[in-house]
User: Fold these one by one.
Assistant:
Number 1:
Amino acid sequence: METIEERIKYKIEEVERKNDVRVIYACESGSRAWGFASPDSDYDVRFVYVRHPAEYMRLDKTRDVIEHELNDVFDINGWDLQKLLRLLMKSNPTIFEWASSPIVYAERTEFARLRNLLPLYFSEKRSIFHYFSMMRNNLRSYFQSDSVALKKYLYALRPLLSCRWILEKHSPPPTSFSALRSETLPRIFDGDVDALLERKKNANEAERGRRIPRLDEFIGSECERLISVIETIPQRQNPGWKALNGAFFETIASAFAPS
């Protein structure tokens, strides 16, 4: 019987055939990559692809996203290399999350070389703003009653702990929640989070539970602390476009080079 990983790898090959592109990287994102999927969680597959070199010379604009499949089981879409590198110039946190996913379905040497560029374009300030906004939006949207969807605690804790990681380690936070919490969550909360993870893994996505006062207090106090320090983080200059342009030209030439 075909495994889910084999089905996903087949679908990645299908993306290449149907769109005449090369997929240089494919990974899991979302709850399965974070490590707290529910039984009914779908598979959020993300990939980076390269078009034929001549396609980048066209005058008419082409789409830089491929949306391959969306249903109850699979959510499969990807970005053109050009889009990825333009967003890397802005230190888009999604790129760093994809690159550190613990579940990788495909990786060509072209993407392995691109990994060397990532630390040069990481912005602590932009990343913390991103994760802080994500945490605050979760609090405003889902923590206004006595009960809350269980997964929302984890969806608030993940960006909060990501902010703590960036402030302490000055590097992109890991995608794996286990790796993230082991370095950033005070041990006093381990029991609460372990219980949340266990319930999340055995419940459906919509299951609700009572609020957890200890975690509420921790999240609230950390939110106040971050507000006071977030503006003081300096904006570091990245190396500019030259390195990205070089990586772009090298990758599109390599991806379609004769075997």
Number 2:
Amino acid sequence: MTTKIDLAAILDDIAPAFAKNAAWMDATDGFMGDNYDILRERGILTALIPTDLGGGGATHSEMCAFVRGVAKACPATGLTLAMHSHLVSAAVANDRAGRPGRPLLEKVVANNWILVSTGANDWLSSNGSARKVDGGYLVSGMKPFASGSPKGDVMVTSIAYDDPAEGPMVLHFPLSLKAEGVSTMGDWQTMGMRGTGSETIKIENAFVPDAAIAVKRPRGPYHPAFSVIVTVAMPLIMSAYSGVADAAVEIAMERAKGTDALAHIQAGEMQNLKTTADLAVADMIRLCNDFDFAPSPELARAGLVRKTICANALRDTVAKAMEVAGGSSFYRKYGLERMFRDIQGSQFHPLPEKKQQELTGRIMHGLEPVAKPELDTAKAAA
């Protein structure tokens, strides 16, 4: 058994160095790999894993606060850490509830793995293809937005599979980024969050053994696993973007003139927007309840509503911060325009606003979370 990790003390140690690198990463399309080395050395990759399994024993809420602090210093590092951490969180939540999860946690502890997620773009239908062979599957596909992939060890992903007996299915599994047939495309040239290295991963006839398949589910319909993933992931991801807004507000107030009533009103508007985002992310953290929750579509719906409110308020906060700072916000040297670009990514994480609203409305009407026309027709007829 290990001792509990002190995330607050580690944050105080590493944040200044992370902040110094952030602008360079953005300007050069650099990658936060050196920061990942520091996080690995300080035990952050295993921080969420219980101490009796050899991890740091941090709570989910503690990790959200840590991610937020890291992102305030370096947005790309905070967001990339959130992606790794939400995969660990899902495994912790599943293990606590008696569902499969412990083998992945044990491997992360044993190998100090960096995990890479591809689930955001896959959602319910996934993509790619799989062919059944002796002992497993040969899988192929393109997986964009794989944050941390240049330094990652294992991707947690899924592939569409047309099962001859069961029909369209999706296979979920871990896959080494060093496996034969797996490569990164070097295509992460973007508006913001440039240092995350969220490259597209190309999979060409990579072998996945039968024993590695964690979940096999019908392609398209909502699956209970997503109620776990949404509940643990969104607070971490939105905590990263909240850190970006924290930094933007701080810069804005340093640049603000504050000599007239208009400046005071603008600052007040900015604080109202930021408070809205803070309340939303705090309530997402509350819903996760440090992994003590019963997953359900209703819980996922509640988390996704708060995610939309949070993302919208965060983008508005940073836009208002540029207004508060005035013309100086247009200069790269002050960092606000970088925060403005980085915060735009918040809207693209699952679910984007209109898809969230559709899912929310369907659940409110007593329907399945996503459309299954034959069921909708039957319910309407009844």
Number 3:
Amino acid sequence: MKSEKPKVSVIVNCHNGEKYLKECIKSIINQTYKNLEIIFYDNFSNDKSVLIVRKFKDKRIKIFRSKSFLSLYDARNKAINFSTGKYIAFLDTDDWWLKNKIKEQINFLKKNDEFKIICTNIFLYNDGNKKKKKWHLNLPSGKITQKLLDNYSIGISSILIDKSIFKNNMFNRIYNIIGDYDLFIKLSISYKIASLNTPLTFYRIHDSNFSNKKLDIYYLELKSWLKKNERMFKRNKLRVTKVKYLLFKLRVKTIIRKLKLTF
């Protein structure tokens, strides 16, 4: 029988995230679901991130600090190892939640034993014009691997996942951009994924989301990922036409941006 109120470990990975960090942490503390711990993993920051978190007088916050800079997904794995909850959620420092996000997900999982992974819809929030829009009209649920390859719809800040899954599945630490994309597509082959169509997560769009450096890394990582997983696609009869088209668009964007810099 499932615990009435299982503990949720909320992982906040941070590298120089002071600008939006206070809003992020507040949105966790203000959750209507109270049985949670906050695993704040600082990835060798040189700003005031740790000082900001320490000002929150909440015993549920646990601070861990890396002694050197790690790749994002290596840092995520390290943070997972410090967690003690039945479930794990992730919230990046520039994102935030509505106050009933965790409660809605836990309630769904209690009523639907066949699911161990659940995400929510997302509001895309433009930090420039302060406008928001819903990311997807309708999110798929169930065995959704092909749908994810056609139109990826999982934001890591919206995920709640049973920690037991990480016993045999961790993020690939070689990645800096697509580590969650890689993991959740692979998990979707073995596990059903539930989705709540209500947006309960805010993803903040700002300049550093789309830097030239990040576009280059995204393109190279996705290109390598496609080649590396060819056997997986064939074995599971999965089509990657739309992923290849995404790769093409990324390549075009990187070329255009470099041309603009040249002129």
